[in-house]
């Protein structure tokens, strides 16, 4: 098999933080197999480009403008043709499509790459040169890695990663020393999610924060700018032993804060994937989908108490209300604290 010189990896397709982080084991293992090749990553959002900054395995990452591959839309025909030609001029000789969507296979086909590899779905196989059925029972990270193994390549490990600079880590350390100068144990808590119906709930996190404080742990609450209104209207405690950093950090600053924290606790969200990617021991409180979406990292444990669910149907479960689903209600604060202490062992003192 002729080794490629220039490879494009098209990401999962979602725009969230976790959607970008889950591609990192694939990129690392791909680069291991083809050390002489250049690898580019086509992200679905700017956050993906930011998170993959300084990745040693990438030549470049860019946001894939999907409006250039749709009929109609905001862009003219000339602009769409110009964008497609820009991709073709990069001269990719191999494209891996992690997404299962038809439109991403179209991108691979129009790239001009002679080898195009991805999962068989949406009758898109004619756009790919090699395709296989998606192993849907596996974690998404392992599904992607299957593309490499089926392609005859070697997979070394499946741990997600984010490459932070020493300056970014030092900055976060200074910030934590400023807000909690006497704290030996800091727990970063991320109580929010893009869909708050799929969370443990802010009341439960409030109780957890108080329990952490009673154990002598300093708590840092983190979240995106879009979570600020939720934070303001919540009963989450903020005071001498709790710092509110919601909306005050960039995504890479959030990653650095999590890295320097002693532990992490959160929902199945993008920040949970970041915790795994920076190697911070943590607890993810999940639901049915978490079984295949959990952060792929040995430092992360999940708590999932699914009451006999075979799928996640929020409409049938809680309707349009903001009621906490039974799977999350089944997880107690004591469950989380016990798991956290077990995970951290003597580090929490």
Short structural summary:
The protein is α/β, with parallel strands linked by helices. It is 37% helix and 15% strand. Helix 9 links the parallel strand 8 (218-221) and strand 9.
Note the topology:
Elements: E1 6-10, H1 17-21, H2 24-33, E2 38-43, H3 46-51, E3 60-63, H4 77-88, E4 94-97, H5 102-110, E5 115-119, E6 130-132, H6 140-150, H7 166-179, E7 186-190, H8 202-214, E8 218-221, H9 228-232, E9 242-244, H10 251-260, E10 263-267, H11 270-278, E11 282-285, H12 290-293, E12 300-303, H13 314-318, H14 326-329, H15 333-344
Parallel strand pairs: 1-2, 1-4, 2-3, 4-5, 5-6, 7-8, 7-10, 8-9, 10-11, 11-12
Structure commentary:
- This protein has 349 residues and is of the alpha/beta class.
- It folds into two domains: 6-150, Glycogen Phosphorylase B (Rossmann fold), CATH 3.40.50.2000; 167-347, 3-Layer(aba) Sandwich (Rossmann fold), CATH 3.40.50.2000.
- It has 15 helices and twelve strands.
- The protein has helices spanning 17-21, 24-33, 46-51, 77-88, 102-110, 140-150, 166-179, 202-214, 228-232, 251-260, 270-278, 290-293, 314-318, 326-329, 333-344; strands at residues 6-10, 38-43, 60-63, 94-97, 115-119, 130-132, 186-190, 218-221, 242-244, 263-267, 282-285, 300-303.
- The strands form two sheets. Strands 3-2-1-4-5-6 form a six-stranded parallel sheet, sandwiched between helices.
- Helix 5 (102-110) links the parallel strand 4 (94-97) and strand 5.
- Helix 2 runs parallel beside helix 6 (140-150), helix 7 (166-179) crosses helix 10 (251-260) and helix 8 packs across helix 15.
- The longest helix has 14 residues, at 166-179.
């Amino acid at each position: 098999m002729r080794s490629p010189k220039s490879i494009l990896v098209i990401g999962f397709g979602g725009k969230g933080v976790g959607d970008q982080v889950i591609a990192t084991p694939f990129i690392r293992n791909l680069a291991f197999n083809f050390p002489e090749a250049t690898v580019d990553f086509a992200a679905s959002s700017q956050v993906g480009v930011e998170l993959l900054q300084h990745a040693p395995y990438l030549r470049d990452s860019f946001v894939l403008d999907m409006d250039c591959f749709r009929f109609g839309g905001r862009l003219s025909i000339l602009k769409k043709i110009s964008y497609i030609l820009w991709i073709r001029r990069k001269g990719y000789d191999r494209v891996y499509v992690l997404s299962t969507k038809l439109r991403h296979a179209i991108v691979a086909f129009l790239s001009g790459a002679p080898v195009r590899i991805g999962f068989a779905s949406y009758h898109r196989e004619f756009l790919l040169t090699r395709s296989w059925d998606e192993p849907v029972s596996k974690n998404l990270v392992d599904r992607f890695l299957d593309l490499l193994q089926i392609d005859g390549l070697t997979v070394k490990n499946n741990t997600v990663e984010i490459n932070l600079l020493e300056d970014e880590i030092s900055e976060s350390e200074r910030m934590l020393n400023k807000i909690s100068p006497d704290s030996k144990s800091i727990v970063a808590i991320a109580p929010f999610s893009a869909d708050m119906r799929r969370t443990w709930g802010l009341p439960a996190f409030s109780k957890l924060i108080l329990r952490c404080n009673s154990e002598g742990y300093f708590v840092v609450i983190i979240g995106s700018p879009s979570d600020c209104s939720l934070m303001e209207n919540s009963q989450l405690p903020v005071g001498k032993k709790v710092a509110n950093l919601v909306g005050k950090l960039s995504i890479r600053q959030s990653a650095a804060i999590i890295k320097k924290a002693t532990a992490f606790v959160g929902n199945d969200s993008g920040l949970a994937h970041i915790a795994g990617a920076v190697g911070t021991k943590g607890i993810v409180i999940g639901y049915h989908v978490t079984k295949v979406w959990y952060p792929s990292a040995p430092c992360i444990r999940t708590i999932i108490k699914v009451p006999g669910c075979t799928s996640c149907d929020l409409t049938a479960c809680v309707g349009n209300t903001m009621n906490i689903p039974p799977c999350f209600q089944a997880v107690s604060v004591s469950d989380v604290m016990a798991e956290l202490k077990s995970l951290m062992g003597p580090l929490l003192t």
